[in-house]
């Protein structure tokens, strides 16, 4: 399906060679100031050729709001958005090699198997241009989340090939135990990330190694993958809709829907599976000493007197999510991207009908590593997930607030028990 | 939400201490033979205490079909299923420690933050008993998939703590490149997996090491995590609904919705991000030599003359999915499980209201490693995803089949091009 | 589909001859007191044989809550509910007439056409027993709506055959113009309705005529239809989700999903199509003089300071909905029920395969008019619609409330225009 | 919500004064020939000023396909469609009367109550321009339904004010019993309907009376409502998804979502509620003598050997739907439209804040009767409903077809019973 979300519903359209690409956002709260200027920056960050950007007024991939706002304010009605395609002519079906041979590990063949019709661009909708609608919709969600809660979403490159910003070590099988990682997660912002263009890895040394590695792959007409880490700060507690729409489940869904992704891990991730429970459990401590960032202190939630969580955790192996529900700590996760399928080297393949083997090679320049450009896409999808979860939880909380108060259900007096609790049923 | 799937919709209910747990399956095809005997085996595999099972007639977690079948045949109407809870009494809200202190890294605190009401079992619906409905619904889906396509779904333990069945090596950063792994994926069945109880890791040496490791953690009143690998064989090509419901995205969603999961990787996974594209791309080859397993040859699809894919791939880094769509090769993925939060050791925590710090420890026996019992749950969720994707693709294919034929859109004659294709727009 | 609603999601299961019928309610606000005693009264009102009810402790159709509550309070998790079927044995497929001949205008034939499998009860899921889950779910919604807003939902019989409570006249083509109707709509309650058992038409004379007419049809082994009018009072303004889920659209959907319904009209309805616009338009007047009923004054919304609408309408041809959105006035609508298909008279039909014509007649007692028993079902479906709309609007309102305030967008000073407005584009 | 349908999902956007209006169609079958020429005719029929149309090349409301097709063939990917708005400038918020006074029975006030933001066009999204996206999406669905099944959908005006094409009589309380009506329903086509412009009522005498009545209302600066009847011919049996998505329920939902609608009745409708069951039940007869129209005989379903129903009904009070499922007979229903709220007469109203009463009148020309222009909108919404139902049923049927055959479940031999069947449980 081309719709994402239950409350903040994004429906996208468009492939490489049609008139335009875009989306409809249904469910955006009314009364929010919104113009194209709120959306364009992420569109521009998504564009190819980031390393050469010299002006923010780049006219390419320019987004136009079609509906849903008036005088720069959202009406609560569907927001249509569109970006024109520059090359709208689909290639003619000539008797070309690419029409006969599917590109290895690309979507050409599976799209034909699925739809029974071959677009001139092969897997037309598998094109990275499809992500334009996502980024536009994500930018709107981000604005709301920032205004309402002071939420900040920042993604950055954590590996290219085998060059890692935080390589796993015996001491730190997961970066969750690495103080340098946790410190970065608590403070990194987009401006800093973009100061490390072209790879967007916020470390001078690692960044340089990654640039060298990518250059090497480019020279060999090959490609290489990598990973992106994303942090969501200042998220309210209570987000996520068990049992099927746990917050990590919808984040995983969102991330694996991005082209070329191969993996997702939340918090301690796969490394955390090797850490003893006695270490991995995050002890609760009082949140009374927590200093609120100004973005939170000035947010709508703060203005409206929404109470702050009274607990926080000493460590954060959980990655800000427990039982599928956010606990208020920074949510962080990692996404793996495979090496781009389109490479300049000759590759073995066979005709669509299997009758003949052959060789295929991409001509022209192509991107040896998609990771740096994936950053704003990861941020956008994270914003869509959190926006949807926020609206769901707001709905529940408001519904509950209109009910008569209950007798107290959680004790807070002196304990009389022995500090021992029963194992629950399974 | 408690509903999973668009076409084969599963809605579950129930927590630890209520009358029953169960689900409603809406969208099951009519006319399939179905009784409780088709469902009970996976229910039994899911139960605790697997290592002590001596009789298949174990009466615990017995499932009862409530509706949707008659004379052992599905009617196409919703199938209600129920498993009674043995201990239906919620614990009284006494002034006990557990009522005042949330368990670290458990769902106690986030459930209260989310719902504002505290169930006696803490995060009541985060209980593993919630998965009963999933396993029941998955067993029905599996039966359909087997009858209609000969699909086989098998999960097994691939690591406990740092004991790996296929440890990553410089030569094989991802098991996808390891012939022993690929051979296992092509042949493993559930009977073999269960012959390696209690850990369900199909290798004598690794299995023994895992047993020892778990025993060690049990003795120290600690817990440890691990990973499960699952393979889906004989899947038709064309499954998966881009752009948001790519097959790996819905698999990731399904897997991360299982309690205690921390990560998901499809095919080559995170390891594959370090492999050059020239290696990672899976060359297409003719499928004409592929030998059909008998389960496929005797399936409904074969009987009805559904054509087989004409291509297959020489390698399978893609894990059976390209562009978000299945390509007919085995789909395999890995899921990470964290160490269980409930441990016998004393742990630091604070009261719900943050006013006081304290110590909490679980009494009684508890499971030091949830991985072996997660096997049937992973299989069930995989079945739900594939079932939904199969119904969606069948619908599309049938809809298309009623349209007038088009002029040929894919050439199959001699190539006239130079084997070079343009890079597509991004 | 067997699921209704987006926010308050009800999934039902069960047919006549299975173990049980019931439903899962997902999305019920947490923290509401709820036991079976809140649900049973509507279940009992739905039961057949209303005229003979002598005790409220009737044990038939007894509902059991399976999950989602603890100590009589909702947890916010799915609420499973179940009513056991007394006769669980499906009839054996003998060579009986009913197995060969579909009943005219019943669901026997279309169910077989749709599912390709014939349940022993013919259109098994078309049985009125299917409505049990709806009524149970509706009772929970009603309780919330009453507590949170003081909403009252009352349905009553307005016609049986050609006996009308408010027959259309040249003066009053629609009852909307009839003061007696509007007065009734403003005040009728369930207790009054039930004092007019067995037909539930709150007028002594009309009621008696209806009883006589039904008796007449019963004696002739025939059946007759009728209409039910339902009013929803104290609804907040702003409910309904254009453009597709306008409030009247979801009400129409809900009502036409009830077995045996043939029509739906909102407000002035079909009669209103014959009234000039100059009459039909409802003039706005200040709501400052409106007296709040105590149920509203004591509701959660009042307690939380939710502002009351500042306008109301002098007349109510609109039936409480304008532009698909509630305006705070009483919502009223009418639902038409056809004569029951099952009658004792002999009827012409043909075998399922069309090979032979034949005669079919129902044996035993059957209901000559379903209208009186439909009353609680109409109320339940109305409650489901309003509940869903309330949660959607609460979500929007809360989301908006966290945004920074806008400059004023509606003027309220002295008019300077000439009282003339442009026709809008179409 | 702005999305309609589960399988063929239409999402619309746009209001009166934004850049464009349009929609995204997700789920259109791939491989269908489709260009703007398939869509434009219904767009043009929807436009205002039908009586003055002299050329089919009218350039207004011109639709542009944005995506989802290539070389005039659908790809199976989302189809974006757009119609530019000519007047994109929202009116400035001056201190005008219309900014202060809501129009009676228009959506101005309820939109402000709902969204808390006032669009310059009042109830911006309640504008009839919103229906453009529906009509475009409906035209695509219609094409598929015609090619695949020979389905024909035709709507026509059946009343304006109290001028009825088939006025109810004691003999014919519902037109369903009127042979002239049934004959019309069996044969009417769009060309004939449009030959009765401007009112689209296919009867010379009634048409003239309607024209006179509308002229009269126009002269008095007033408005009047009416009804539209729509027939869907050649529908396959088995459509409709009980229990909540019965075919009449989704049709009712669709129709009541059209602006200005007040009522819906299927088949015999409200009139049928006054007909005895013994008359109302439609006797089954063999369908072997039914002559297939050429559109059906040449359809994809016929080509693919889809079996035809073996039964039909002698009468059609049911309106082609029984138990919520189509039975293959013509589906017909009636929709009521209220008099347009915007009239030239002065009308009483009050300021938004209730502080002041006032008088409002629309300037300029306005439409005294919306019924004739509603015809293509009714047809479009009917097409969306049937398309969704067709895809759902195709999915089920195909899923079932891959299962092993069951033992026969319906007898077809000689009857041995006594022609008497038990009343089912309720």
TrEMBL record, chains A, B, C, D:
Q: Which cofactor does it need?
A: FMNH2
Give the signal peptide as a residue range, or say none if absent.
Answer: none
UniProt entry keywords in alphabetical sequence: Amino-acid biosynthesis, Aromatic amino acid biosynthesis, Lyase
- Database matches in InterPro entries: Chorismate_synth, Chorismate_synth_AroC_sf, Chorismate_synthase_CS
Instruction: Kindly state which reaction or reactions the protein catalyses.
Output: 5-O-(1-carboxyvinyl)-3-phosphoshikimate = chorismate + phosphate
Q: Where do Polar residues bias regions lie?
A: 408-426
Is Lyase found in the keyword set? yes
The record's section on Pfam families has: Chorismate_synt
**Entry's Gene Ontology BP terms:** amino acid biosynthetic process; aromatic amino acid family biosynthetic process; chorismate biosynthetic process
Pathway in which the depicted protein is active: Metabolic intermediate biosynthesis; chorismate biosynthesis; chorismate from D-erythrose 4-phosphate and phosphoenolpyruvate: step 7/7
Q: Keyword Phosphoprotein on this protein? A: no
**Which EC number applies?**
4.2.3.5
Record GO terms (molecular function): chorismate synthase activity; FMN binding
Positions of the UniProt region annotated as Disordered: 295-319, 406-426
Instruction: Recite the UniProt cofactor note for this protein.
Output: Reduced FMN (FMNH(2)).
GO cellular component: a single term: cytosol
| Classification via PANTHER family | CHORISMATE SYNTHASE
According to its UniProt record, which protein family does this protein belong to?
Answer: Belongs to the chorismate synthase family.
Quaternary form? Homotetramer.
- Record's protein name: Chorismate synthase
- What is the species of this protein? Rhypophila decipiens
């Amino acid at each position: 399906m081309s719709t994402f979300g239950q409350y903040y519903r994004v429906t996208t359209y468009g492939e490489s060679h049609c008139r335009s690409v875009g989306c409809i956002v249904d469910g955006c709260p009314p009364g929010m100031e919104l113009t194209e200027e709120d959306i364009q920056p992420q569109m521009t960050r998504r564009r190819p050729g980031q390393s050469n950007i010299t002006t923010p007024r780049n006219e390419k991939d320019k987004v136009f709001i079609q509906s849903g706002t008036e005088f720069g304010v959202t009406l609560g009605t569907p927001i249509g958005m569109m970006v024109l395609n520059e090359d709208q002519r689909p290639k003619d079906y000539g008797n070309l090699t690419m029409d006969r041979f599917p590109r290895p590990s690309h979507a050409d063949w599976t799209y034909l198997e699925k739809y029974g019709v071959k677009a001139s661009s092969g897997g037309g909708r598998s094109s990275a241009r499809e992500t334009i609608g996502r980024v536009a919709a994500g930018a709107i969600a981000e604005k709301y989340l920032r205004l309402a809660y002071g939420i900040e979403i920042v993604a950055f490159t954590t590996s290219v090939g085998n060059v890692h910003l935080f390589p796993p070590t015996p001491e730190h099988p997961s970066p969750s135990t690495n103080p340098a990682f946790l410190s970065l997660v608590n403070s990194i912002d987009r401006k800093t990330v973009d100061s490390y263009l072209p790879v967007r890895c916020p470390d001078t040394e690692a960044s340089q190694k990654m640039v060298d590695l990518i250059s090497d792959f480019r020279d060999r007409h090959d490609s290489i993958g990598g990973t992106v880490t994303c942090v969501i700060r200042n998220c309210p507690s209570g987000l996520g809709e068990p049992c099927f729409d746990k917050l990590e489940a919808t984040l995983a869904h969102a991330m694996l829907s991005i082209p070329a992704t191969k993996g997702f891990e939340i918090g301690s991730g796969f490394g955390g599976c090797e850490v003893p429970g006695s270490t991995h459990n995050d002890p609760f401590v009082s949140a009374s000493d927590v200093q609120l960032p100004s973005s939170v202190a000035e947010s709508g939630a703060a203005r409206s007197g929404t109470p702050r969580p009274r607990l926080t955790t000493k460590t954060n192996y959980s990655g800000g999510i427990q039982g599928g529900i956010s606990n208020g700590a920074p949510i962080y996760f990692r996404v793996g991207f495979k090496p781009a399928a389109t490479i300049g080297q000759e590759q073995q393949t066979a005709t669509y009908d299997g009758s003949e083997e052959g060789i295929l090679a991409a001509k022209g320049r192509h991107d040896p590593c998609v990771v740096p450009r994936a950053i704003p896409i990861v941020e956008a999808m994270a914003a869509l997930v959190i926006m949807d979860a926020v609206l769901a939880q707001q709905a529940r909380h408001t519904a509950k607030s209109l009910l008569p108060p209950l007798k107290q259900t959680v004790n807070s007096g002196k304990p009389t028990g022995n500090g021992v609790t029963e194992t629950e049923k399974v």
